[in-house]
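Good morning C.,

I know you're traveling, so I'll keep this short. The sequence:
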Amino acid sequence: PDGAGAGAVVAAAKPAARAATRRSAATQRTAATRTTRAVPAARRMGSVRGRAVLDFVRHQIGWTARGAFDTKEFWERSYARAVTSHEWALDGSKLLEYDFAEATPRRSRGGRARAELKADAPPDKRTLVLGAGTSALGRVLKDAGWRDVAAVDFSEVAVARGQKVEPDVDWRLGDARRLDETFAPGEFGSVVDKGTVDAIYLSAGASYEADVGAVAASAAGVLGDRGAFVVVSLSSPEYLWPLLVDDALWDPATSEVRGMADAYLYLLRKRRASKRRLR
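The tokens, ready to paste straight into the viewer:
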């Protein structure tokens, strides 16, 4: 009799338990929806999928929302509130070695491959981290064996912070569009950007297309022959590649876009001086 009574209680409890589980799941879905809606638009754009939505409405529909991500004032305010480092797109350590599929608009080889950053940004040559902000990329490179690393940003707050937390990285104040005002021609073996080009592109300012091109040309000016400009971006090659690539500066045969798991890596290889003169 006791066993039968217990079985009846369990049987009666099952529907109630299922109903409670359904209510709990519904509550969790509602909370998740509210959280998603509360995420700022700029953060939702912080993925390849989010950026694809932005590119669609910008280039196919013609709607453009102006951001302030290309202004010094915006970043001074943002960095003044920062208490920890922030990494755009992916952590710097994921750049040291990564899998990719080629995504260059001009050609497609198919398949996947594995690459190391040191193959394109030699550790024995001076390396510049562009628009470094509060990223720890400079520290990552130094810890991984890069001998001479410099970092540049146009925010006094970011540079002061960088000089304090990364004393063995050569932090400088300067504009990514005018690197010749801060560095010598041909000073670097590589320039690595993880966020600057995207910030300008995402801003949709009146001159954002010209400004993206100016960053690439500026990087070419401080690179030595065959030096590499490495750009980590969330933006589609269909739209960003034409803004970056000037065939008079970059070698199209060795420049490409690599589709990583969480971002694109644009690899631009500077032409030799003799070939630039011939053009």
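Safe travels,
E.
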